[in-house]
Amino acid sequence: MADAAEPVDLLVLGADLVATLDDTRREIAGGWVAATGGLVQAVGGPGDPPPPATRVLRADRCLVTPGLINTHHHMFQNLTRSYRPAVNGSLFTWLSTLYPLWAGLDDEAIYLSAWVGLAELALGGCTTSTDHLYVHPRGAGDLISASIGAAVELGMRFHPTRGSMSLSQKDGGLPPDSVVQDDDEILADSERLVARWHDRSWGAMVRIALAPCSPFSVTPRLMSATATLAERLDVRLHTHLAEDPDEDRFSAQNFGIRTIEHFENMGWMTDRSWVAHCIYPNPAEVARLGVAGVGVAHCPSSNMLIGGGGMAPVAELRAAGAPVGLGCDGSASTDHASLWLEARGALLLGRQRKGSTGMTGRDALEIATLGSAACLGRSGELGQLTVGAAADLVCWPLDGIAFAGALTDPIEAWLRCGPVAARHTVVAGVPVVSDGRLVASGVDDILRRHHSVAARLQGVAS
Ligand code: ZN
User: Fold this and answer.
1) In angstroms, what CA-CA distances link 195 with 135, 182, 191, 379, 399?
2) Does the structure show a pLDDT above 50 at 312?
3) Which of 159, 198, 409, 462 could form a disulfide with 455 if both were Cys (CB 3.0 to 4.6 A apart)?
4) Which value, in Å, is the radius of gyration of the alpha carbons in the chain?
5) Rounded mean pLDDT, 324-339
6) Would you say residue 2 has pLDDT above 50?
């Protein structure tokens, strides 16, 4: 900690309200936040003199929250957004239509899609994102390292997951042969990436998790061996689970059991795991997921656009003890990547399911911050503005026409009014979005290159 007289690196000053998300959920009207060395050094109110600072960020007429955390995404899919032949198919037909396009991914494509994906997230108030990259065409290069390069350039906190597919059509799976890999090759590459990139330190900017795509695209052997490897390397586990009724039909046909039973049998029912979607657990399974502490990445827009028509039992999962975080899901199923939109989607879906007590704005904020941090195994470190936590925060402007008349509850107004994007997004005490603009340079060049790769993959003229 810096001495009181020593200037801090960053002081965020003048906010209407600071939502700390601390243990007592303190909300400080007229609050400020000070950061040094990438961590929160102090949080105070109008009666507390703020420390001197090297840099001051004004948050006038803003709600300040911890940075939102994205627990499920496939950034490569922004190269095939709203792809007409796939966009209105069921989950399985959508996937089957897009797999052949994704077979053309290479390290340039992944770098560009991660850059665009992370920049888009930062503009929407996200400070930490995961990415589930499960397509590794033969000879495509070191795709995960290419995506990390983009995160480093932008200054975003990043949790890429080593995705995989090993069960191709010829073995009864969904993906074509060209995008699947051998189990042992996947496991060896997983171990290599953890050794190269996984940072266990407090405030780490990069962590790796292991992430077979789904129980219907990898062999049972790979599911089980990945869980064992994650245990040995002490890293987290991620996959899709119970996203669509087709998945239970596949599991019944191939394994004779429900998909969550298969997940459990493979050694995944542990607090090391967080799963995307989890729309279709039955009540007994909700209880088991809760007791085990399996995290769930709730992806409202994706579920409404491409799911089988179900809604994740978010309230029940949280009540059972499962951490629930927020995810935007891939950019070919959700197409946008704004965690503000997802938080609003969680609010709307929660109330659609259970009426006025089903979800509040504060619940949605908690899911997007504390819940997501728990999914990534970073409770206490991310998702809250408390002394010693990572200095990741967002200043949300609550002014202009959309917020006129919203005078009494900035947190409810934040999701009920809008739409709103970040005025400032700060990661590890450093602005990555300032006055609504990306701090990193080169966006026009990135977008030109991205367009050219997207046109190549989609087979259209660039
Ligand atoms: Zn997904």
Assistant:
1) 21, 20, 6, 23, 46
2) yes
3) 462
4) 21
5) 91
6) no
Terminal C-alpha separation, the chain: 52
Surrounding ion ligand 1 within 5 Å at CB are 276, 329
Beta pairing partners, 390: 39
Q: CA-CA distance, 271 to 74, in Å (whole number)? A: 23
Cα–Cα distance, 56 to 123 (Å, whole number): 20
Residue 74 CA to ligand 1 center (angstroms) comes to 6
Helix locations, 383-442, DSSP H: 410-416
Cis amide bond preceding 52, omega within 30: no
Question: What is the distance in A from the centroid of ligand 1 to the CA of 302?
Answer: 8
Decide if pLDDT at 307 tops 70. no
Residue 172, phi-psi category: left (phi > 0), alpha (psi -120 to 50), beta (remainder): left
Q: What's the CA gap between 242 and 250, in Å, rounded?
A: 11
Count CB neighbours of 309 within 10 A: 9
Beta-ladder partners of 40: 35
Structure tokens that stand for 338 in this block: 């704004």
Q: Which residue is it, tokens 């969680």?
A: 346
Name the residue among 236, 143, 136, 142 with its Cα closest to residue 183: 136
For residue 233, give both structure tokens. Answer: 């390397």
Degrees, nearest 5: CA angle 112-303-119: 25
Determine the distance separating the centroid of ligand 1 and the alpha carbon of 80, expressed in angstroms: 14
